[in-house]
Amino acid sequence: MIHDERVATRRVAAELAEPAERARELAETLGLRPYPVNYWVVTHDEMNELIAYDGFQTRYPHWRWGMKYDRQRKQDTFGMGKAFEIVNNDNPCHAFLQESNTLADQKAVITHVEAHADFFRNNEWFGRFAGEREDPDAAAMLERHAETVADHMSNPEIDREDVERLIDAVLCVEDTIDQHRALAAERGGDEELDEELSDIEERLDRLGLSAEVREQVFDADWVDAQRDRERLPEPRPDVLAYLREHGKQFDEEEGKAVEREPWMDEVIELLRREAYYFAPQRMTKVLNEGWAAYWESLMMGDERFAGDDEFLTYADHMARVLGSPGLNPYKLGFEIWRYVENSANRREVVDKLLRVEGVTWRTFHDVIDFDEVADLLEPDPAIAGVTADTLDDLDPDDPRVDADALARAKAGDLDADAYPWAVLTHEGLCERHFSLTKPANRGFLSRIGRSELERVARYMFDDEVYPDVASALSDVDYGAGWTRMREVRESHNDVTFIDEYLTEEFVVEGNYFTYEYSEAAEGYRVASVDPDDVKRKLLLRFTNFGKPTIAVYDGNYDNRGELLLGHRYNGVALDIEQANRALERVFDLWGRPVNLATIVTEYDDHELEVARRRGREPDGEEIPIRLRYDGETVERHALEPELAEQIGADEVDYDTTPEEWLA
């Protein structure tokens, strides 16, 4: 449904009412199950505001929104990227379309949005936020948070700058949550700790100490220190939860840490909850955008949702989206999804061909005529070429045909030229769009390797089922690819998606490579074309949102109530200047000195000069260090060997620097 009350945009909304309705029908026939979507037509400036607010109309007051708005406005003004739409994860979803889009662009973003809405509803990582509820209730939640923060800022007893400073500190570490767990109050042993403290107080009572001695030796600060001494059998990845549970604020007048005010704990928890809400979107950027780009391309291009007079405009639109420079999640996701579809369809076809008499995995490439297979897999011409003039060629009893829709089309109530898919069922669309029959994929079947053929045949006990190839291919499930895609969509995130489907075949065919910074050349150079290196580099880019992995290692470091954070070193060093600034923000949330254990690589000046002259990379020395911020200055200390061993991520090294550069 299109929403807008202004005269200038109601005209645009009226044009989009039917496309929005038809796009939903097509999406559902293709097998998608999206949330309901409310469409809104907005102006250029309103779109910039919505993007700054992460797709919502109301957010808590803070200067960051203005900064994001200004950046987006300048990016749009100077042609550095146009935002066609933005959609949020909610039930119903709210999608905002820019008023200045062409009709072809509007249709494209509507099909794109329908696929996003399907992903939001069916991907388990998004479901972890809503829990057992179907409805994430995001817009209402963010509005409540905005009202709460605004109330604190307007409270005369609370300094507005204190609220903003607290928000600044939380936002600095908002990525340090345990995104692999559902949102929960991570109390992690508080009940046992309370029992321990009660036992300590009982034993002090039994000692019969005088009030003076007890106050001097076992005062309230000592008891509180025991609470801060939470035992950590293993690092806590949800740093923000730990700071919320055990952090204090530093009182400059008293010169020590004191308990936080209740409003502070409330704001921290609200922002932590928002971090968990937005985490799935960041964890599935490639998966989600690739999913939407795939179905948009199929609906707009293959199913001619873009009219004949709109197709060139749409082709230009899609080319700009997929051709954006840098690591493009739309392009990467789109290509991997097509590989998932082709692989599943290939396995389905191979499974049938290996059951033909006389065909084995050893003789497969010698006895199979791949041109014949391609011809036999072509869809029925009556299904592939539906028009208003060919409706009589369709059998209403055919399971690939929607009999009711066919009757309406013959009666003139349905435009079969504009919406040929409407007279077909899901089964018909599966055959109509079977990926291995497309010209671009014609060689995909013959490219299968002997090792994969052997894996398919290994547990095939009922071989020689079919007398010939034609009989075998008549039993092919044309929906195998889409079925597998829906299964992957339900359970994967970007890391697992790339880890499973960025195969050697995909990397080689796509001409992927890695690059590294050369200390000798003082610039980036091509490092490797090895598929394992390419996968590791991409996994680094998406693991933990592409940010360093930080965890809490000790809440009472060196028995002084200090916080010890550890950086899981994986061959990629921290930006020390940024780390120093982050420690200052963490201090605001902890109230006492904070430490960060990490590893840095240092190079000798002489070694660097020699390496430059000889055209090789210098051998740097990895040095474990501990940064400590006490509220005034950052100090650098040597790190204990035991801690250095703990923070080293020995199981993976993301550095792909070669002995000899490729280019």
Task: Characterise the protein shown here.
By secondary structure, this protein is of the alpha/beta class. A hairpin with a 4-residue loop joins strand 9 (550-557) and strand 10. Helix 7 (160-172) runs parallel beside helix 12 (262-283) and helix 13 crosses helix 15. Mean pLDDT is 88; it is low at 184-198 and 227-231.
Tags for this model:
663 residues, four-stranded mixed beta sheet, alpha/beta
SSE map:
Elements: E1 2-3, H1 7-29, E2 37-42, H2 44-52, H3 63-77, E3 85-87, E4 93-98, H4 103-122, H5 124-130, H6 138-154, H7 160-172, H8 190-207, H9 211-217, H10 220-228, H11 239-246, E5 249-251, E6 256-258, H12 262-283, H13 285-302, H14 311-322, H15 329-353, H16 364-367, H17 370-377, H18 381-384, H19 403-410, H20 426-432, H21 450-458, H22 469-473, H23 480-491, H24 494-501, H25 504-510, E7 514-518, E8 523-528, H26 531-542, E9 550-557, E10 562-567, H27 576-590, E11 594-602, H28 605-614, E12 621-629, E13 634-638, H29 641-647
Parallel strand pairs: 1-2, 2-4, 10-11
Antiparallel strand pairs: 3-4, 5-6, 7-8, 9-10, 11-12, 12-13
| Total count of strands | 13
Ranges where pLDDT stays below 50 over 5 or more residues in a row are 184-198, 227-231
The multimeric state of the shown protein is: single chain
**Strand content range:** 5-15%
Share in helix: 40-55%
Spatial strand order of the main sheet? 9-10-11-12-13
Q: Please give the radius of gyration in angstroms.
A: 30 Å
Contiguous helical run count = 29
**End-to-end C-alpha gap:** 53 Å
Provide the structure class: alpha/beta
